[in-house]
Amino acid sequence: MSKKVCFLLCNSMYTLDGIRSTLGLSVENQYAYSVIMYNELPELSDYNKENIDWIRDMEGDVLSTVDANVERHGMTKITMEELGQKLREMNIIIPYGIMRPLETNDNFN
Amino acid sequence: MKILHVYRSAPTDDVKKLVAAVSEGRETESFDLNVENPDYDKLVDLVFAVDQTICWW
Amino acid sequence: MAKSLGIFVTSPQHMRHVMGVVKAAKAKGAKVKVFFTWKGVHLTKCKQFPELCALADDVAICVDSYKKVGYDPNDVPPGLEPRKMATQAQHGEILEDYEYYMTL
Asked: For chain B, which chains pass the contact test of at least 3 CB pairs under 8 Å?
């Protein structure tokens, strides 16, 4: 049975790979969501844009609490309050990677 | 619905808010992994006793 | 029926927790699968990794991540079956086939 899974991506060094993991579950017929918190993504490669489109095609979504990601990358806006409510619907919640309150975006690869 | 919150580090204010939202009206347990010698036996017992485990950062 | 536990490892910081949880779960007769991805694959270089592979019922890693963080995919970590240098489908398998789930 398909599950609802939410990846919480709060560290810029883990964000793009977290989106890739989200897609990995989408193609396994799970309802998979990424939520990008705190950090603003730089220009995305075609590969990463396609990953986001594909997640949406598979009935998942890529959301962000950061306005710049909504405006620049078309991510779905979510507030922290809304996120709390959304997480209640999830079967699996994945605080991904490590928590580090990064203010910079200097480690994308 | 019974939820286990596992903390790998001290929870930030935002984590505390998310935990509160997820936990509202539900039975919850918590386990602190951020100690010198965690009781893994107890942790696994808790994991097997709940419907959902969330391992916060 | 024996319980089953899937562990999704995304942090490079918690090998002691991975080992501790797997040992405790196995001591209770549970079936355990561990899947390492992204920077979590650095843990394949820990000295306990072969022991983990022997202890758990199934250990797999994301080979794409392994390559991206700088390792040679031909350099299979000791203890790991080469066919378990795999894809994110291993994570999907945990969601499908394992009753309990943790992220470390």
From this structure: A, C
